[in-house]
Design a protein that fits this description.
The complex is a heterodimer of chains A (145) and B (111). Chain A has 145 residues and is mostly helical. Chain A has one domain. A two-stranded antiparallel sheet of chain A has the order 1-2. The longest helix of chain A has 33 residues. Chain A is elongated and about 55 Å long. Chain B is elongated and about 50 Å long. Chain B has one domain. By secondary structure, chain B is mainly α. Classes of the chains: A mainly alpha (145), B mainly alpha (111). At the A-B interface, α1 and α2 of A face α8 of B.
Amino acid sequence: MIATKEFDYEPGEHESEKASNSYLMSLVAIIAGLPLPIINLIATFAFYMGNKNGTYFVRWHCTQALLSQISMLFVNSYGFWWSVSIAFTAEEITNKYIAFILAAIIFNLSEFIATVYTAIQTRKGKHVTWWFYSEITNLICKANK
Amino acid sequence: MEVQRVDMFIIANGKFFESHQVAIVRDRLLEVDDSKWAIIQTLQFKNPTTMLIVSLLAGSLGIDRFMIGDTGLGIGKLLTCGGLGVWAIIDLFMIMGATREKNNEKLQTVI
């Protein structure tokens, strides 16, 4: 699922720091807006925009972090509004709801662990690639010519 | 400029620039005429660590952005109370890099 690969070049100290911060961004933003599932995405997107003129290594990891947050948004938003409708309307808790919330928790937890691991490894200058996300990132993020 | 002089500058001011920019800055300085040394010496660079402390203490008021010269962003941050806290958190991670970029821009305008 997660693999450490060789990058095109050896990233510098500050590059590794910035790339690692792109993953930390999503975790720290939880403090600011825990009930809302979109805050993490906004924070990661803002960081991505701030580094869009950065080096290839930084941009690559910002893109991967952003993509992971986008996929989380759909799952979390659906779960959030389903929970809100149960809390404030006549809708009742069903087996489907419990199954969805469990799946969402597992998805969030695995994403959280992967993000923490990637942030640590990227800080050391290692190029950590995620299954599926890294392929899309390679398509989106191109090296400077 | 002389290699010794440039290396002295890099030792003293290297921490104010991105690590991947230091080599480029050194090469550029070597090409620069000796007459610009006086101006380069008088340049005052912002310390990224100081900016991080300012961002930590007064980030939601945009003081950090004002200090590095991003007045527009500073006003935006001030009026939105640090983007309701989110922008202030983002800037905690970005301000050091932004400061180093500004320092590089400042040096580039002279050389």
